[in-house]
C-alpha cells in the first residue's frame, strides 16, 4: 500500500480517476415474417471477455437467418452488419453484376 501511494505521488497520479470505457451495445433487430412482428434484443460485452457481445448477437442472427427473416445488427447505433435468409443485403451495390 505504501509503495503504491509513493508511485502515485511520484508520477502525479493521485488525482486521476480510473478510466471508464463506454459500454459497447450491440442491438439485433429482426422481422418475423410469419407473424409480421419486429423484435429486437441488446447484447453487451461480458467483463473480461473480448467480443462476447458481438458474438452473441451474431449467433442469434444466424438462427434468425436460418428462418429466412431479415435482420440487422447495430453497434452503438450504427449498422454493423445485416442479412436476409443467407443473402447479405445491399449486395447489389457492392457487386452490380450480381443479381
What topology does this entry show?
Blueprint: H1 2-11, E1 25-32, E2 37-44, H2 52-66, E3 70-75, E4 78-84, H3 91-94
Antiparallel strand pairs: 1-2, 1-3, 3-4
What's this model, at a glance?
The chain has three helices and four strands.
Question: Order of strands across the biggest sheet?
Answer: 2-1-3-4
Cα-based radius of gyration, to the nearest Å: 21 Å
Order of SSEs = HEEHEEH
Number of strands: 4
How large a portion of the residues is in β-strands, by DSSP E?
25-35%
Q: Which residues form runs of ≥5 with pLDDT under 50? A: 92-99
Mean pLDDT: 75
The number of helical elements comes to 3
In total, how many domains does the architecture comprise?
A: 1
Please state the overall shape, judged from the principal axes of the Cα atoms: elongated
Broad structural category = alpha+beta
Helix fraction, binned, reads 25-40%
| Largest sheet report | 4 strands, antiparallel
N- to C-terminal distance: 66 Å
